[in-house]
Amino acid sequence: MVRSDSSTISYSIDALRGQDRDAFAELVEDTSGQIYHLLLRMLVNEQDAEDALQETYIKAFQALPNFEGRSSLKTWLYRIAANEALMVLRKRKPQPQTVEIDKDDEEIEEPREIVDWCCLPERELLDQETRSKLTAAAQKLSDNLKMVFLLRDVEGLSGEETAAVLGLSIDVVKTRLLRARLKLREELSAYFAEKMKNG
Questions:
Q1: Are residues 74 and 13 part of one domain?
Q2: Position 102 in a domain
Q3: How many CB atoms lie under 10 A from the CB of residue 154?
Q4: Domain-embedded: residue 112
Q5: In this structure, what DSSP letter does residue 172 have?
Q6: pTM for this model (two decimals)
Q7: How far apart are CA 182 and CA 161, in angstroms?
Q8: Residues 103-160: tens digit of each pLDDT
């Protein structure tokens, strides 16, 4: 469960670096909800997400003595979790395929058809059916694009935080986010066209 009241947090970076188990338990309680949701959205399978969550915190605990604090603990944990998710996705592929999270020369592809979403009522953008369609469409993105989309548009990380999590430049994050949004718009064009016609 993610705490809503940050004033109750009592652990310190020094305690975590010293691998104080009480401090680490509080860190897990404080952050595991967000980390799990990212992993579940990335991996879809609950068991895979739970296994990746466990591995994330095992590796975090082992690495804490060397945590330098150049990024926030949240960003650092997201980075470990993102790497775990990508490793699971690589293992799922029927043939060996490397996911290049630092590739920065991807071209922006023009979508074939886009419906302008600007005139769609906000309630339509927020209803459960639309969210389900968006989630399904996001699963069709490449691993690289999906990770950037989830971190930026779903988890709400900044461009700088997303770049730090994935070890990318901000320009690459912006490019991949644009490509992800364009692909999602193309994927959902027919659905939103029908929504607008029936609205």
A1: yes
A2: no
A3: 16
A4: no
A5: H
A6: 0.73
A7: 22
A8: 444 444 444 444 444 444 544 455 677 777 877 888 889 999 999 999 998 888 999 9
Helix (H, G, I), strand (E, B) or coil at 177: helix
Structure tokens at 160: 């700088």
- Cβ contacts of residue 79 below 8 Å, gap of 6+? 71, 164, 165, 166, 167
Closest C-alpha to 11, from 61, 60, 24, 31 = 24
In eight-state DSSP terms, residue 106 is P
d(CA 162, CA 62): 23
* CA–CA separation, 114 and 196 (whole Å): 13
Domain residues for the domain of 151 are 117-198
Q: How many residues appear in the chain?
A: 199
As given in the structure block, the two tokens for residue 155 are 């988890």
CB atoms within 10 A of CB 15: 17
Q: How confident is the model at residue 3 (pLDDT cuts 50, 70, 90)?
A: very low
The identity of residue 46, as a single letter, is E
**Distance from C-alpha of 27 to C-alpha of 116, rounded to nearest angstrom:** 42
Let me know if residue 23 belongs to a domain. yes
Q: How many CA atoms lie within 13 A of 40 on its CB side?
A: 11
Tokens 């595991």 -> residue: 32
Yes or no: say if 29 and 3 are a contact pair by the CB < 8 Å rule.
Answer: yes
Is residue 159 a contact partner of residue 115, using CB atoms and an 8 Å limit? no
